Amino acid sequence: MRVISGDARGRALKAVPGTGTRPTTDKVKEAVFSMIGPYFDGGQVLDLFGGTGGLAIEALSRGMERAVLTDTDKKAIDTIRQNLQVTGFADRAEVYRNDASRALKALAKREVKFDLVFLDPPYKLKVIGGLLEQLMQDELLAEGATVVVEHDAEDRYDDPVGELAPLRRAEYGDTAITIFRKG
After folding, report:
1. Is the N end or the C end of the chain the one with fewer CB atoms within 10 Å?
2. CA–CA dist 50, 57 (Å, integer)
3. 3-class DSSP state for residue 119?
């Protein structure tokens, strides 16, 4: 795993020890950023299932200003912090050990708005629909925000959630990406 493009291009990222985390492959990451970017002029990114931090770090490398990353696994949190240090983005990121729904509740109290959100939960959890609703209900998305959902290719997310409309879907083996846009 590496940073594909931008300020930290080519920097290697550490994987989370063990088998509990399924990092987004470089191929899928490259495809995602070609669909949503590829570069940004500031903005805030939220990665609710941070894992290695690779998606948010890629977004920072490509021009996002700030990032918030969460995960429930201590090993993942430690890995995210190490990867932020290696890429030089530690001062532009906040990292929290929390589950996604509780993290969204805490962020809603801060009245922060995100321009880009990554949702890549373990496929077995089946929480994507509820988290999309919570993002809208808690008004955490800026106008024109993009939400990137990585999920099992067997699952479909074809319906709008409030102002959040599905734009595009792509499959890569067992993995699918669905892109939503607000407004």
Report:
1. C
2. 10
3. strand
CATH class of 41-182: alpha beta
CA–CA distance, 159 with 180 (Å, rounded to integer): 10
C-beta of residue 135 within 8 angstroms of C-beta of residue 180:
no
Domain assignments of the chain as residue spans, ordered by start: 41-182
pTM: 0.96
Helix segments in the chain, DSSP class H: 26-36, 54-61, 74-87, 100-109, 128-137
Helix (H, G, I), strand (E, B) or coil at 57: helix
Residue 176 dihedral angles phi and psi, to the nearest 5°: -125, 150
pLDDT 10s digits, 109-143: 998 999 999 999 998 889 999 999 999 999 999 99
